[in-house]
Amino acid sequence: MANTDNGTFLTVAEVAELMRVSKMTVYRLIHSEELPAIQVGRNFRVRASAVDEYLGASEYTPGQTG
C-alpha cells in the first residue's frame, strides 16, 4: 500500500514554472539525476520537497568557490 504522507508531487511543467526555467531544463535535471523524480507511465513527477532541497543546495553565496 502506498504511503500518502510523502508530500505533494509536481509535474515537470509546474516545476519549470516554479523554478522559472524551461521544461527541457527540468528534464535534463531529472535525467542527470540532479533532481529526483518518479516516472508514472511516460510522465515524470517530482516531489515538492525535492525541488526545495535542490534549490536550497543551489543557493549562491558571495565568495563561495566551486
Compact description:
This is Helix-turn-helix domain-containing protein. With 66 residues, the chain is α+β, with helices and mostly antiparallel strands.
Provide the gyration radius in Å: 13 Å
Please report the distance between the alpha carbons of the first and last residues: 43 Å
Low-pLDDT stretches: none
| Strand arrangement, major sheet | 1-3-2
Kindly describe this structure.
The structure is a single chain. With 66 residues, the chain is α+β, with helices and mostly antiparallel strands. It has one domain (9-58). It is built from three helices and three strands; from the N terminus they run βααββα. It has helices at residues 12-19, 23-31, 48-57; strands at 9-11, 38-40, 43-47. Strands 1-3-2 form a three-stranded antiparallel sheet. β2 and β3 (43-47) form a beta hairpin. α1 packs across α2 (23-31). The longest helix is centred in the last third of the chain and has 10 residues, at 48-57. It is elongated, with a radius of gyration of 13 Å. The termini are far apart.
